[in-house]
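Protocol step 4 of 5: obtain the predicted structure for the target chain.
Materials: sequence only (see below). No template structures provided, no constraints applied. The aim of this step is simply to have a reference model before the mutagenesis design in step 5. Sequence pasted as it appears in the construct record:
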Amino acid sequence: MRLAIQLPQSGPRATARGILAAARAAEAAGIDTLAVTERVLWPVDPVPLDASGATGHPPDHQRTLYDQLEVLAAVAAVTERVGLITAIVVAVLQPPAILARRVATVDQLSGGRLRLGVGQGWMRAEYEAAEVPWKRRGAGFEEHVGAMRATWGPDPVSFDGRFYAIPPSLQGPKPAQPGGVPVYVGANAPAGIARAARFADGWLPVGGLDDTWEGLERKLRAFRSATAELGRAPLPVHLRLHTQVSETDLDARSPLAGSPEQIAGDVARLEALDLGVEEICLNQTQRGVPFGEQLDATLRVRALLDPSPTDHAQEAAR
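Step 4 output (structure tokens):
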């Protein structure tokens, strides 16, 4: 199982120097992937949080949040091996030709280490600020990804869709990875899972402390079934979890929460299910856990999964 960690790009204590130091430390310790996220704005007034009609605010740490692609461009310059993933870009808030070039640039700067996690977003206020119609959230999302992929193909590129059009053009740079940057679709609802199965290169579900094993397994099986029904080979899953890593065992807990020993046991359970989960991100940022403590917790889990330290971890220890 590959392990990812969220970079400290948000909150009042986030700094450029701190982000880069965290990236170096994580790579030296043997972390597989560095994750970043997106929040365009933090509304002063409460906003709808979900379809239930409940209102509130995004997490407090997202009041300040460094832009994820710029962060990854800087991180690419100070790392050599570690993978990079956006979790996630609200794709339709940017024109596809522009976002595609930004993504291709980061992939080139990183030597082909980027995976692009994209989603539809949930906050109407961000669509209003970007001057993008809310109704495009669902209908335009798949087409947007198609337009980006078109720009990553051979020149001249062109695209003619319902929402987006790119005239015959030359556009570079192309991504470093042949065929383009792998696109992971972030989705939890049934319609989103079906959409990811239809056109994504991977799936990026988000879990929390209110999840159950039954619910998680049901979603994983739904995604696997949807890809099979379309005649597609099984796709990889990057599981992002807003979780808790505790010093001691927890009695009542969600999947991949609790002590490092409990989480390592959960990883073994996930691997036994064999439903495509190749990487997990144990993200405690919403709980206010400093990056250093999150890194230590993730490494404790790693040590239980792989008792022999990696060369990177040995180097960090020295």
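Step 4 remarks: The chain has one domain: 2-317. Residues 310-318 have pLDDT under 50 and may be disordered.
Proceed to step 5.
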